[in-house]
Structures are given as structure tokens and as C-alpha cells.
Amino acid sequence: IIKSFKMWQKIKNRLFHLPKSIFYRHYYHQPSKKLVLVGVTGTDGKTTTSILLYEILKKSGINAGVITTIGAKYGNEEIDTGLHMTSPDPSVIQKIFKRMVDAGVTHVVCEITAHALDQFRYYGCNFEVSVITNTSHEYLDYFRDMQHYIETKSLIFSHSKISILNRDDASYQIIKHNLGNKPYLTYGIEHKSDYQAKKINLDKNSLTFNLNSLKIKTDSLYYYQIYNILAAFAIIDQLKINPEYALEVVKNFPNTKGRREEVVNQLDILALIDFAHTPNAIKNTLSSLHQVRQGRILTIFGATGGRDQTKRPIMGSVVSQLADIAFVTADDTRNEDIDKINQQIISGISRNSVLIDDKQPLSEIKKIIKNNKDNFVYFNIPNRQDAFNLAISLAQAKDTVIAMGKGHETTILDGNTEYPWSEAEAFRTAFKLRQADASI
User: What is the 3-state secondary structure (H, E, C) of 28-41?
Assistant: First the structure.
């Protein structure tokens, strides 16, 4: 069945997606030819790196645009590019390019998925420079295996004048081999690279490191952010942009909706929203929080239905190793049973963990948590708002409560129906309920 699906997808790509891309490219008079395109691909970090680059380009005086998971932006314009899709349909991509050209935009940063490359959504677009952030366990419901996934990601470099690779990533050797004799540049931390971070220091106030002759300082307290910054500096160097602009931008790291987004509250709780939905992204996010946390880490997360099921136990395993308390809940369930999804996540949770029944009185739940302070404890709560409510009711001052998976998204998909959803509003609702309970 899987083999037949892959074959059908290949035929569909050639007979449907490719002609569609060619049509819209010509329909809008090939606008990408008038633009300097920068491509950003990878499993995690694409949006953050793209927004960072966009802000640096703007700071340098360039009339720039960007297309990401969140949407498209240029000047004062913001364009919704559709739900649950990183790289838009080619009809949307070419239309946006045309609007950008008409507005005088000269450079566009494009966040590009493996699906988009496989389905020719950016067909005919040539990139001045492209970078890969990383590759990890994702979309294996669509791709045969990690080898195929990485090889598909690397297709972007066949349409790029300059290729920039993450020297520390598992994809490096495969992509390097696929590039043949084509020149490329590297960035990294652990391995010798063209753009290598050294003398790294992370404390509760800032992250600093050296990049060649540059001393970089940022207020982003996430270790993995170093890779995003290195990728950005490597790209602007190839675009001949003064690094002083980049130093200025990263000093106060640009806010990206749904990425490490803080929700203000009066409870002295660090409430965070993050799009992390792969085992690697979850691991990086929680590991970074470990380095700067002051209290416990409480996580709210689930797995998308109708997508790669093999990553679900890995997600459970990672969270049980790096969080103190977790609330396994709904993400976009689509047409899958939420109980099945959650049980697959739970199957990966370490065996010495404690499952707590959320139907008990709050006082009993707190007592169980107190008696298991050296163990990972978790809840299985299918309703996502209920998970937020319980997490906030249990959180103490200085704790971190992080909701992962939904990020910037404005709907939650159950069956075939999109219901309005906001992680920030879910937090605010939970804060109000706690304050109301305290006043009784």
C-alpha cells in the first residue's frame, strides 16, 4: 500500500503539480526573475531563520519580503498564505511574487519544505543562496525514509547559486555527496566550519559567542538559536551585507509569532507558545529551557493526526526525559482517534513515570505530584483547553509552562472541521479561571 502511494504521489507530482507550477509562473510573467531569492529549508528553525534574515535585510535598507509558515510580508503588507501549510500553492507563490515586484521589493526570503520541493511548488525559481537548517524525524508518512527526505530537501541546492550546509547535522554527508563538485559553505558548532561558533556562553540574561572576528550577543536564551544565527550570518555574507546590521538585529532577537512567544500574566509564571512538533525541536526547546529555568517545566503537547505515527513514541520519550510534568492532549487530530494518538505518545514515556487521573480533586492531584517530586508525572487530557486549565492551576511562581505544537496557528482541526483556536487565548482563559477560583 505504501509503495503504491509513493508511486501515485510521484505520478501526481509530474502530471499535476509540475504543469500547475509552470502555468502560474508564466501567468504572472515569471516575477521571480526580477527578485533575489533566498531559500531556507530544513526540519526545524526555518521560520525563525527566515524572519531573522528578513529583519536583517530590512535593517540594511533593502526592500525585502518574506514567505513563511506564518504568512507573507513586505512593506506594510501581510498576506495569509493558508492553513497548515508552510510553502503555499504555486498559484499563491507566484501571485505574491508579482505583488512584491510591483511594490519594488528586490529580495525575498522563502521558507521551503520538502513537500514543496517534491511537488515543484517553486519550479523555475532560482535562488541566489540557500541554506538547510537541519533534518530530523518528520514526514515519514510521505517520504520513504530519512534518506529520501534528506535527498528531497537537497533538491533546493540544484537551483541555488550558493549552497550553505549545517556541518553538524546528520544530513551533511548525504547532501555533500549529492552536490558533487558544486561549491558550498558550512556553518556549525561542533565541527570545523566556514562559519563556526566558539566561546559560547549562555546565562539567564544573554547568549554570547564568537563567529570568526565577530562577537555576537543576543537576548534569546536558546542554545539552538546559535545555528539559526550562524545560518543568517553566512547568508548575509554571501549577499555582501555589512554584518553590523545583523549584530544589531540579533541583539534584540526578532519576535516570531508562535515561536518562544511569551504570554504575559500576573502569576510570575513563564508561559510560552512554541511550534515545536518534532522530536528534535521538542528536545532542543526543552534542553534550552533546562539551562535557564528557575522552577519546574510543565509541557502541553500532542501529535498531529493523519501524519507520521512513528515519531509519537519518540516525542513522549523526549518529554519524559526533559520535563517535570506533561499534559498529553489534542493537536490537529484530523480523522484519527485522539485516544489512539495519545496512547502512541504515552507508549514512549519512561516506565518509572506516574500517570495521574485529572478527574480527581485538585488537592489530591497536588498531593500526588508532591509525593512524586523525583519522578516525571503526566496526564492524558484529550481536550486541549482542559490541558491548559489544569497546567495553569498546578503551576507555581517561577515555573515554565510551555505549549508546543500549534504555535501561530489560528485553528485546530478535528475531523474535517477547522475550529477557531489560539494558544495565547487558551493561556488567558486558564489564567482567568485560576484567578476566579482564587477569589471564591
Answer: CCCHHHHCEEEEEE
CB 305 within 8 A of CB 341: yes
CA dihedral 234→240→243→245, nearest 10 degrees, is -120
Q: Angle 243-251/46-59 helices, nearest 10 degrees?
A: 120
Mean per-residue pLDDT of the chain? 92
Average pLDDT over residues 320-342: 96
Other beta carbons less than 10 A from residue 243's beta carbon: 17
DSSP-derived 3-state class of residue 137: coil
* Long-range contacts, 306-310 (Cβ 8 Å, 24+): 306/141, 306/334, 306/335, 306/336, 307/139, 307/141, 308/137, 308/138, 308/139, 308/140, 308/141, 308/142, 309/141, 309/344, 310/137, 310/140
pTM: 0.84
Q: What's the grid cell of residue 404?
A: 508546543
- 197 CA to centre of own chain: 22
Q: What's the pLDDT band for 1 if we cut at 50, 70, 90? A: very low
Amino acid 2: pLDDT: 47
Residue 12 pLDDT > 90 = no
Judge whether residue 141 has pLDDT over 60.
no
Does residue 316 have a pLDDT over 60? yes
How far is residue 185's CA from residue 187's CA, in Å, rounded to a whole number? 7
The Cβ of residue 414 has, within 10 Å, a number of other Cβ atoms equal to 16
C-alpha cell read off for 59: 535593517
**Selection from 316, 310, 324 nearest residue 391 by Cα:** 324
Strand 214-218 with 207-211, pairing:
antiparallel
d(CA 141, CA 306): 8
